[in-house]
Design brief:
The complex is a heterodimer of chains A (about 775) and B (about 525). By secondary structure, chain A is mainly beta. Chain A has 12 helices and 44 strands. In chain A, the strands form 8 sheets. Chain A has a 9-stranded mixed beta sheet with strand order 31-28-32-34-44-43-42-39-40, sandwiched between helices.
């Protein structure tokens, strides 16, 4: 029997009663799947915990559904809307573009043109198998080409063009470097002669297929089972480019190379990639400023706001000098939307309790059984519960489909454990990393991944998934331990997601007496930060149960909340680093990087901020002298001894994985108390990079006092308060000993106190 | 420290300097100038396969003629065309004519043996059959010389069909034997058939392209040029068949890999037979030309000694190339016809050249260059292996191949670090690793683990959870995106912690083995 594989995603990540949710599934080895709606209670299957817990919820989706294999179009390219076929030039033609190739030796790549790979039809400018610029011409039966003399050098700006004269069938290639002091990897001191001008009489004239699209960064292709798709995907940047229905001579091309607008004779199209910038960034449309306004639209979110061929280095942001930021970056493995057809839809019933849900898809039995959980969150249409559990979906996106355990040489040094793979990891990896990458990965050309989307199967946002790098649960499945705790303690809670927080702001939090963060709320947009700050300033109460939270600046475009953008800058615990001049989010126009470097360190919100990480083991906390003060000692009611939390499903302790510390210099509220701090960590917990000014030995957990987790507490205006556990491992300690443990008791003390409006316990002990 | 001293000592005795001076002039790229690339009419071929690339030593864009053979061919053919008429006496000229005809035969034969892979030894038999047939027709019907040449390919084709049939069933040695038999049968037949000149040892009196009344020198010159044209035609045929579709098809199906080609959907049998028939027709045409040159045909065409001489030519030149066929023929004809003054010794010389070729060269004379390069590379890698065994360092000649020079340092650094770390490995340390999972470890153990963890991805160990919390296996990463990890062995661990320790043990073993 054939191996069955099911992969699926939902169109929305957060829904409420009355919404309709679509599930997009693709399956191999079966033509039908059984669906069921389940409520997820606990994920981690660690034998020391309660194990996997789900509850089936009766639903009309519970039946068999037909499925088929759905394909994924990966890669960035621009599709030009040309309904009248004005770019199907039959006569003389010139194609021109500025390019910054990043993988010129990665086989055929189309730069721009109307080229059909399967039909060998049309013409296009591209990079050939030899890494040289090529101009391809095809008439539907035969193809011919002219190739530049010298290979292209990676990460250097060129102006390239090709013209074709049908009268003589002469094709001419034009290749000139446009390197300045800032724009390229190499400077002018390198003695390469980048130039090439070659002309050749071709054997065929271009014949354009009626349906071939004009593409920038790819070429149209077709195969019988898949249908039409785009191949010959380009990797690198493209700046302004155009089409001229004339043979442009050397002088005319030299002028365009110097930034002059193309001449009027035969002017067909000129995509000015710098058009359309606003203070708030730019979208996927690339405008044609030529006579026919044949605008192009980017697929899979080509990276915009990148430095262009004429970047002069003085301005580090497109907002200051938009004309210098014409670079659009293409990656042949980018993926922000699978665009699958819905397999089933689910109307969210009015009586469905807020919670964590999945449409569980199953097929086959015995050895060939396969299952897939398409996870989503149901919020309350009208909030009623006092407790809100905020699911950090932005951070889920950041880690979605992480491949670093396969690819990253750094990984084992960070985690200090050998990675553990599950079957699904290997399946996805060997299928050419079919569902795209996380923001911790690099594209095939080595550039960092700055976009992540939930419109694709997120195989690691699944309840039982164990994270390869650490060999344990991470994020979503770990957060279910907090869900299970709330369920076990029979608290009345509702779910919100980062998406709701980003969209609705403080209004989303306002109805709740308290908000619980999950285990790792690392990625925050400005509206999310603002909402949290306003909530706390207005009397809100927060349990910060994360480590390394409120760390990265991210952006979402209002029209596409499923795609998150982040740029990793010169500091922070970062898997990659954006190139100079490319530090601002195209989605919002904001500077990305760490919130700390925009003067909003996490300490300002929750008292603690990232101090270290390590995955070799977690440790207990030791109560600090301040923890005995009567204003806060109620938090420890029922907890015996000074040391607590020496258990946990994540590393055997409640403090660990990623940890945060109190730091007045970063804006910890001056009245914050350190209730407890972690016991010392191993040297596999080194001090965070942003705290290191000079490189010195002794930055590991056994030697540096800053490597620690601080449990802090402070009050905010209007009877608000923040309790910070400051450790990712905290959540995974909750279910130990059947939820009857010191960590659980502390949580209960805080939650119970936060449930009561007005004065907080211990507030009477405020004498100086 | 001792590791440093050792490697310094090795460096002092040291690798000799490497780096070659360029002997040939370097051609620069066209740079900013327009390069108009010319093609042969009706083809995509440019006159020379030129590739411009950046010299990694200087980054200069240098133009290189990738395949210089066209230049050698033109020079060689010019010499062959000019030397005999200008410098040769009459006997030399007629020897040159014979050379050209034999060369043509050998080139076509090369198509059969080299391209089609059919070991037919009936080559001369096809030539002879065509020569006899057209001579007979000419003598009896007065067919003019051009008619003889026109008819001869048909005869060759017919004869080719006849001897191709057994090739379907017989292969290699058995087929070769059969074709020898056929040639001998032909000889016996013409020797015993009165109508084919059994009495006069040959059938003579056919028409010739040499006009009557031309001077002896003039006739010889004309014959030489005509034979030269035949040789050029044979070369053109070789290029067309071997270099185009048929040749490409057959190159995918070399001996022993036919099944693979067939699996790809290549009908290699049909292609082989096609090439064989084309070659037979061409041999027939050469036979026709032979008859018009000698005004008839002789049973010598079918004899074993002619066949062996032909074989000598092919073997000396090397099977599989047209240049081999031409130069092999040249050498044998030189000894056989030009140095005739040497007497019978010359035959021994030919035999010795042949022996030498067979014994010492893998692919004849034209295999010398690649064979030499292979030998040189082998010697180099042997020397390298010897030195690597001593020092485990990257050799200067290897360094030139590494684009990122940092890798050279890293390798040297890691080697010294490994030596240092090896000394820390004790049974107690291994026991400590097992005991301290998740906890604080000794500095020695952390040092070793830190080194293990930062290893490059390719070949790095990882764990596969076959059944979470029940069965774990050790795998090795590929370091290549999309290529899954491979299972390292058949050990199964019950817990993740045991698997972690299993990986540690493997890494310790690799460290100690290094």
């Amino acid at each position: 029997m054939a191996k069955i594989r099911i992969s699926a995603y939902t169109d929305k990540i957060s829904v409420k009663a009355g919404d309709t949710l679509s599930v997009m599934a693709s399956a191999e080895g079966t033509d039908s799947v059984h669906a069921a709606l389940v409520r997820l209670i606990h994920g981690d299957e660690h034998p020391d915990g309660p194990g996997f817990i789900e509850e089936k919820v009766a639903s009309p989706v519970e039946r068999d559904w037909p499925v088929r294999k759905q394909y994924v179009q990966k890669g960035n390219f621009l599709r030009v809307a040309d309904p009248k076929g004005q770019l199907a030039v039959a006569g003389a033609v010139t194609l021109h573009a500025y390019i910054f190739p990043t993988m010129p030796n990665d086989g055929r790549q189309a730069i721009l043109g109307r080229w059909s790979v399967d039909g060998t039809r049309g013409c296009a400018l591209g990079i050939g198998a030899s890494g040289r610029l090529e101009f391809w011409v095809g008439d539907g039966t035969a193809a011919d080409s002219v190739t530049a003399e010298v290979p292209l050098i990676a990460r250097v700006w060129y102006f390239v063009a090709a013209s074709f004269d049908p009268a003589t069938r002469t094709a001419t290639i034009y290749q000139e470097p446009v390197i300045n002091r800032y724009n390229s990897l190499l400077s002018k001191i390198v003695p390469y002669d980048y130039r090439s001008h070659v002309s050749q009489v071709l054997r065929v004239r271009p014949a354009h297929g009626p349906d071939t699209p004009f593409l920038i960064g790819g070429a149209s292709d077709h195969n019988p089972s898949r249908g039409g798709f785009v191949s010959a995907l380009y990797s690198g940047k493209i700046d302004r480019c155009g089409v001229q229905a004339a043979v442009l001579d050397r002088a005319a091309l030299d002028a365009i190379r110097n930034g002059v607008r193309p001449p009027e004779a035969g002017f067909l199209a000129y995509w000015d990639t710098t058009e359309g910038y606003t203070d708030r960034g730019i979208g996927d449309e690339v405008r044609d400023t030529g006579p026919h306004a044949l605008h192009a639209v980017g697929i899979n979110r080509p990276v915009r706001c990148q430095t262009g061929w004429n970047w002069a280095g003085r301005n580090d942001c497109f907002r200051l000098a938009p004309k210098e930021f014409g670079g659009i970056e293409f990656h042949n493995d980018a993926l922000t939307d699978c665009h699958w057809q819905p397999t089933l839809t689910l109307d969210i019933p009015a009586d469905l309790k807020s919670g964590v849900y999945a449409v569980k898809l199953t097929a086959g039995d015995g050895q060939s059984a396969a299952e897939e959980y398409t996870t989503f969150f149901v919020r309350a249409a009208t909030p009623r519960a006092p407790i809100c559990l905020l699911m950090p979906t932005a951070s889920y996106l950041a880690y979605a489909n992480f491949q670093g355990a396969f690819d990253g040489a750094f990984l084992q040094s960070i985690t200090a454990v050998t990675p553990v793979f599950a079957e699904v990891d290997i399946e996805v990896y060997k299928n050419d990393v079919e569902f795209g990458l996380s923001t911790y990965d690099t594209h095939n050309d080595g550039s960092g991944v700055c976009h992540s989307s939930y419109h694709r199967p997120l195989f690691n946002m699944r309840p039982k998934y164990r994270f390869t790098g650490v060999g344990g649960v991470w994020q979503f499945p770990a957060d279910l331990s907090i869900v299970a705790w709330l369920e076990h303690m029979k608290y009345d809670y509702e779910i919100l997601t980062d998406e709701d927080l980003h969209r609705d702001g403080v209004a989303a939090l306002k109805p709740y007496s308290m908000v619980l963060n999950a285990t790792h709320c690392e990625y925050y947009s400005e509206p999310m930060m603002d909402a949290t700050e306003d909530y706390l300033a207005g009397g809100g109460r927060l349990l910060y149960l994360s480590g390394n939270g409120y760390y990265w600046v991210v952006g979402f475009r209002p029209d596409e909340p499923w795609v998150m953008e982040v740029r990793k800058l010169e500091a922070g615990s970062r898997a990659w680093q954006a190139r100079a001049g490319e530090h601002y989010l195209a989605s919002t126009g904001e500077r990305s990087g760490l919130w700390r470097h925009r003067n909003r360190a996490p300490q300002k919100l929750v008292g603690t901020g990232f101090s270290s990480e390590g995955m070799d083991g977690s440790v207990p906390y030791r109560r600090m002298p301040d923890g005995y003060h009567r204003s806060v000692s109620w938090i420890f009611a029922g907890v015996e001894g000074e040391v607590f939390g020496d258990f946990g499903l994540a590393g055997g302790g409640a403090a660990g994985i990623e940890i945060d510390r109190y730091d007045l210099a970063q804006g910890t509220p001056p009245h914050a108390r350190i209730l407890a701090s972690s016991e010392p960590f191993t040297d596999n917990y080194p001090l965070v990079q942003e705290d290191i000014m000079f490189m010195t030995p002794g930055l590991g957990g056994t030697q540096h006092p800053w490597v620690r987790a601080d449990m802090t507490y402070f009050t905010t205006p209007e009877h608000g308060a923040v309790f910070s556990a400051s450790s990712i491992a905290w959540g995974s300690a909750l279910p130990c000993h059947k939820f009857d443990n010191s960590v659980s008791r502390i949580m209960k003390n805080v939650v119970d106190a936060f449930l009561k409006p007005g004065l907080l316990p211990g507030s009477e002990f405020d004498a100086k | 420290m001792s590791a440093f001293i050792q490697s310094n000592k090795a460096a002092a005795e040291g690798p000799s300097l490497i780096g070659r001076r360029r002997l040939l002039p370097r051609l620069r790229s066209h740079g900013g100038a327009l390069w108009r690339r010319w093609r042969y009419p009706f083809t995509r071929r440019t006159p020379l396969l030129i590739e411009t690339a950046y010299n990694p030593k200087t980054l200069a864009a240098e133009k290189e003629i990738v395949d210089k053979r066209p230049l050698y061919w033109i020079a060689g053919l010019l010499v062959l065309l000019v030397v005999p008429p200008v410098f040769g006496d009459n006997s030399f000229l007629s020897a040159a004519t014979v050379f050209a005809i034999y060369a043509a035969i050998n080139i076509v034969w090369m198509l059969m043996i080299g391209t089609a892979g059919i070991f037919s030894l009936a080559t001369l038999a096809v030539v002879g059959a065509a020569a006899y047939t057209v001579s007979y027709i000419s003598i009896h019907t007065g067919l003019p010389w051009w008619g003889m040449i026109a008819v001869s390919p048909l005869v060759g084709l017919l004869f080719g069909v006849l001897i191709a049939i057994p090739a379907i069933r017989l292969e290699g040695f058995y087929y070769a034997l059969l074709t020898v038999g056929i040639a001998d049968l032909c000889r016996e037949f013409v020797l015993q058939t009165q109508a084919l000149g059994a009495a006069s040892y040959g059938l003579y009196g056919a028409d010739t392209y040499v006009p009557k009344g031309i001077s002896e020198r003039g006739g010889l010159l004309l014959s030489f040029y005509a034979a030269f044209v035949v040789m050029l035609a044979a070369l053109a045929l070789y290029r067309m068949v071997n270099g185009q579709r048929l040749g490409l098809l057959l190159r995918t199906a070399p001996e022993g890999q036919e099944a693979f080609a067939a699996a790809l959907g290549i009908n290699y049998r049909a292609a082989r037979i096609q090439v064989f028939l084309i070659s037979s027709a061409a041999l027939g045409a050469i036979g026709g030309f032979y008859a018009t040159y000698f005004k008839g045909a002789s049973p010598a065409l079918f004899t074993m000694d002619s066949l062996l001489l032909l074989l000598a030519m092919i073997v000396i030149g090397g099977i599989g190339t047209a240049e081999g066929a031409v130069v092999g023929t040249l050498i044998v004809v030189l000894f056989d016809r030009v140095f005739i003054g040497l007497g019978p010794v010359r035959l021994i010389i030919i035999a010795m050249i042949m022996f030498g070729t067979v014994l010492f060269l893998r692919r004849g004379l034209f295999g010398i260059a690649p064979q030499f390069r292979a030998w040189r590379d082998k010697r180099r890698s042997e020397r390298r292996a010897l030195r690597t065994g001593e020092g485990d360092d990257i050799m200067p000649e290897d360094a030139t191949q590494i684009a990122d020079k940092q890798a050279i340092y890293t390798q040297r650094f890691d080697k010294q670090l490994r030596e240092e770390l090896k000394k820390l490995v004790t049974d107690e340390l291994i026991a400590e690793h097992r005991r301290t999972d998740g906890g604080r470890r000794s500095d020695a153990l952390e040092r070793i683990l830190t080194f293990f963890r930062r290893a490059e991805v390719a070949g790095k160990y990882a764990i596969l959870a076959e059944k979470p919390f029940a069965a774990y296996r050790i795998v090795a990463l590929s370091g290549k995106r999309g290529m899954p990890p491979r299972l390292v062995d058949d050990q199964v661990f019950a817990t993740q912690e045991e698997a972690q320790h299993g990986v540690f043990l493997k890494r310790i073993r690799d460290l100690l083995d290094s």
